[in-house]
Write a sequence for this structure.
């Protein structure tokens, strides 16, 4: 999965959308996976939760 995501990221930005935690970026970093995401959209930061369409529009921006 990690290899596939790295290959995909060569062609398009990857922006995970999460309701889980505001620490997702640091979690990725601690696992050595910070190169898998261009940025992370956290519902706790943007004030909109999945499955609301707006959170995906924020990620697409």
């Amino acid at each position: 999965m990690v290899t596939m995501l790295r290959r995909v990221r060569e062609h398009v930005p990857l922006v995970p959308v999460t309701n889980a935690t505001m620490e997702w970026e640091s979690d990725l970093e601690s696992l050595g996976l910070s190169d898998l995401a261009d940025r992370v959209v956290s519902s706790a930061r943007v004030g909109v939760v999945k499955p609301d369409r707006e959170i995906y529009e924020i990620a697409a921006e």
Summary: The longest strand covers residues 17-18. The mean pLDDT is 92.
